[in-house]
Automatic annotation (TrEMBL):
Name the UniProt record assigns to this protein: Uma2 family endonuclease
Keyword Transport belongs to the record: no
Entry keyword Hydrolase: yes
Sorted UniProt keywords: Endonuclease, Hydrolase, Nuclease
Amino acid sequence: MVNSLKELIDEPELGHNDDPEERFISSGVSWENYESLLAKLENNSHYRVTYLDEILEIVSPSIRHEKIKTNLGMLLERFFYSKRIRFVPLGSSTFKNKAKKAGAEPDECYCIGEEKKVPDLAIEVVVTSGSINKLEIYRRLGVTEVWFWEKNQFKLYHLRNNSDNEEATVYPETYGYELIVTSEILPELDISLLEQCLLISDSIQAVDEFEQGLKAAEERNK
């Protein structure tokens, strides 16, 4: 693994293990260096770059991580289509705010309805823990809901604290987000069904069971 920001910028690959989830962390990184790194990696979608208060973190996701991320996006978009919910997928786009000293690249993110400067929903697939608290970044950016997929289950958080505050005053222990059971921006989505189908390794079977679950729920609600 590289040991300095300069090495990272000059190094084409972070590692050569069979399926690494490699992580580089550096403190005291200026906003200018952060933006310089983003420009350097502009045509390389493999890395996820996170920035908060001069702490920079770069992750090289594992194949397992990317499989989960892709299947999750596939199932969610099936849900959007089935419910006729208009959405704008923004993938792992970079969202940053210089004044708030925060920037992130979610694994998946969506605007619900029309496209906005900041997504309504950001999703993080957690395989190995990082040192930067993503909820604080998303609070500063003003993302309404954040979902974490970790240890084969979801944790959903809904923003209750105004992102203009310097520090979270509501739910400060979770940086202004309330831990919730059901999504408030997608209230019809059965999170337990989504969890079950994400654990199915075969993509076609996962989609089939997910769509069958959606149809069964519609029948029950008639």
